[in-house]
Amino acid sequence: MTKGVAVTGMGIISAIGADVPGNLAALREGRSGIGPITRLPTHLAGTVQVGGIALSDEDLADLLGHPSEGPHTRTSLLGSVAAEEALRQAGLMSVDRQNLGLITATTVGGMDVTEKYFYEYLTSDEHLASIDTLHAGHTGQMIADHLGIANGFVTTISTACSSASNAIMLGARMIKAGMMDRVLVGGVDCLSKFTLNGFNTLMILSASRNRPFSEDRDGLNLGEAAAYLVLESDASVKARNATPIAYVAGYSNANDAHHQTASSENGDGATAAMLGALRTAGLSPSDIDHINAHGTATPNNDLSEGRAFKRVFGERVPPFTSTKPYTGHTLAAAGAVEAVFSILAMQQQVVFPTLNFTGGMSEFDLRPITKLTDMPLTSVLSNSLGFGGNCSSLILVKA
Amino acid sequence: MAKPVYINGMGTVTAQGTHDPERLFGGPVLYDADAWHAIAPDYSKIIPGSEARRLSTGMKMSIAATKAAMEQAGVERVDAVITGTGMGCIRDSEKFLRAILDNDEQFLTPTPFIQSTHNSVAGHLARMLACTGYNFTYVHGSNSFASSVIDGRMQLRNGDAEVVLIGGVDELGDHSTELHRRNGHIKGKSVPSAGLLVSTTSGALFGEGAGFFVLGTVKGPATHAELLAVKAWHKTGAEGIEQHVLDFLRENGLSPGDVDAVVLGRNGDGDHDGYYNKLDQGLFKQHTQLAYKHRTGEFHTVPTFAMYLAARVLERGAVPPAYLLKNPPSGTIRTILQYDQYRSVDHNLTLLRKC
C-alpha cells in the first residue's frame, strides 16, 4: 500500500456550520442543515427544502475581513472563506502564497449574480462589472486573488456532482508527478434559482427531506457549500515540518458512457471508479473500513450505487453512511465536503449516522449506519457520482 | 524516463472554415462585425440527421472536430476524454435562464438545463466513443484548454493512458455577447478584422469554435508535431512576462535562440496586449511571429487554434501568410512557442517541436 499524498489542512462552510468545528459538532449531534428556502426569491420556496447557509453575502465578506477587489458572487465568497480556513489550518496563511496552486470546482459558478442582473445589465450601468462573473472560472480567479496567488497553477473543474472529487484527484496526481508542492483542492457551489429549477424539471427533488438508502426515498435536497483541502508533497511537508492530518491514497475517475443524467442500472461507472481507487491505493476491498456514499437519495442513484457496492465488496460491504441529509447535495462541492467529513470520521474514529432513514430498500440488504458509532477507521472510501456519467472515488487514509 | 507526447490528429471548427484543412493556407475570410460565428461544416455528413437537430452548436462543433481528429490519428477508441470550455453550452444556459425569468419559473423543460451542464460535451463524447475511462472538463477561462493539455500530457507521460482526446469548445450566445458589448470586453467601435492587431482601443472582437486533438505516446500515420511542454499560471505583470518565458524555456533545456517562431495571442485590446508588446520588443524581436485572433476572434478556448496553427506550420514547414505577423522564417522551423493570456489573467505557454 502507498501512503499517498499528504493533507495538511482543511476548511469548510456548509449548511451545518461555517467552519470545521461547527460541521463536526453538527455531525456528532446528528443535526441536519436542511430547511425551507429563505434566501432566494423562488416559487419553489414553499415546496422544496434546501441545505442553505444562514450567513448573508455581507456576513461572508465580513468573515473574510478584506475580500479581494471583486466583483464577488456568493460562490466566490463561500469559496474564499473555506479556502482561507484550510490554509490557516495548514499554517500557510502567514507564508508567501504566490506559487500556491489552486484547483477548484463549480457547476454554476456565479449564477446567483447572473440570474439577478441578467436583464438589468442591458439597461443599467450599475452592475456592469459583475458581467465578469458569467464564466465558471471567475470563482477560482477571485479565490486566487483573495489568497494572493500569482505564479501558481489555477484551474477549475466542472464535471457536475463529482467535480470536487476530481479536483482532489488532479491535485494528488500533480503532486505525485512532481508538478507542484502545495495545492488547495476542493469545490464550491451556491444555491441558485437556475439549479433549483433545473433539478425540479428533472423531478429528482425530494418533497420533504432526503432519505438515502431508504425504500421510500423520493429525491434529493440541494445544498450550498465550499470545502478545500491543502495537499502537499513529502518534500514540502518535511521542509516546513508540517503535520499531515490524512493522506489521499487512492483515486479514480470512470465514465458510465450510459446516459447524460442517469446512472447505469448496475453502477458500472461507480464500480470502475471504486476498483480504480483501490488499485491506485494498493488496497484490497477488505482494507476499507467505511464508505461515505454519494447517497443522494434519488431512486436511481442509491440503487445504482448500492449495486456497485455489492459488485466491489461482495457480501462484506463496509459500514456506510450518506451525509447528504446534513448538508443537502452540494453538487460541485460535495466531493470535498465529504472528504472533510471522511477525515473528521478518521480523526474521531467514529462513523456519523445517516439521518432520516425509514427502512431498507427491497432490492438488497444494504443498510446505512444510523447511529453515531465508534469504530476503528484507517481507510475511508468516498464516492461522487455525477451527470454525464461522471463517477469518482477517493480513498483517504489516517495520518 | 517520461514518454514523448505526439499530436497524432487534429480537427477544428472556426470562423476561418478550417474544418477543411486546405483553408489554413488560403486567403482569410475577412469580417466587419464584432462577433464572428464559426463556419459550419456540413453536419449532415457527420452527425445523423435526427440527432443533429437536437444538439447545440458547441456540441456539433465538438463532434465534428473530434471525428476529424480521430480519423487523422487512425484511432477508433481513446483512453480518456478531457475537454475545456470557458462558457460551456452558453446558448442552453441562456435559454433556460430566460425561461425561468420570462415565465416566472413556470413551464420549464429539462433539456436546456441538461445541455447547459458544463461537462455535457465530454459526457456526450464518452457515449459516442464508448469511452468508459477518465472524463474531465475544465472551465477556467482562457486556461480551460491549457488545463486539458496539462492533464492529457500527464496521463500519457505517467503511463495512465496511451491515447487521449483533448480539446476545447466555446459557442457565441446572443445575450452574453450583448453583455460583453455592454461591459466593453467587445470593442465599442467596430474595427475590420484586417486592422485588428494594430488597434489600441479597449476590448476584443469575439468568435467561437472548437479544436480537438488526439495525443499519443506513439507516432501515428499523420503525426503533426511533438508536444514538448505546457505551463499555465494565474497572473503576472507585463514586466514579468519575459522572465516567465525564460524560466519555461530553461526548464525544458532551451533558450530563446532555440525557438524558431512564436504564436502570440494578440487580440488588439490596447489594455491587455502589453504582454505581447513586451515580448515583441524584447526576447522575440527577431523571431518569426504569428498571430491568429484577428482571424478566429477571441474566445476562452481559442488557444486550441494556436496549437492547431503551430502544429500545421511544423508539419508543412511554412507559415500561412494570413497568420504571419512579422519576420518571415529564414530556415526550417523546428520549435514553436505559443503564448496566450486574456485580459491579463490565465497565462499559458506551450512548446511544440517538429517530428
Explain the layout of strands and helices.
The complex is a heterodimer of chains A (399) and B (355).
Chain A: E1 5-13, H1 20-29, E2 35-36, E3 49-50, H2 57-64, H3 74-90, E4 101-105, H4 111-117, H5 120-123, H6 138-147, E5 154-157, H7 163-176, E6 182-189, H8 193-201, E7 225-232, H9 234-239, E8 246-255, H10 268-281, E9 290-292, H11 299-313, E10 320-321, H12 324-327, H13 334-348, E11 350-351, E12 373-374, E13 379-386, E14 390-398
Helix pairs in contact in A: 2-3, 3-6, 7-13, 10-11
Chain B: E1 6-13, H1 49-54, H2 57-73, E2 80-84, H3 90-102, H4 110-116, H5 120-129, E3 134-138, H6 144-157, E4 163-170, H7 174-182, E5 209-216, E6 225-235, H8 241-251, E7 261-264, H9 274-281, E8 288-291, H10 293-296, H11 303-316, E9 324-326, E10 335-342, E11 345-353
Parallel strand pairs in B: 2-3, 2-4, 7-8, 7-10
Antiparallel strand pairs in B: 1-5, 1-6, 4-5, 6-11, 8-9, 10-11
Helix pairs in contact in B: 2-5, 3-4
The helix tally of chain A amounts to: 13
**How would you spell out the order of helices and strands of chain A?**
EHEEHHEHHHEHEHEHEHEHEHHEEEE
The share of residues in extended strands of chain B comes to 15-25%
Radius of gyration of chain B: 19 Å
> Tell me, what's the shape of chain A?
globular
Regions with little confidence, pLDDT below 50 for 5+ residues of chain A:
none
In terms of structural class, how would the helical and strand content of chain B be classed? alpha/beta
Residue runs with pLDDT of under 50 for 5 or more positions of chain B: none
- The helix content of chain A is 25-40%
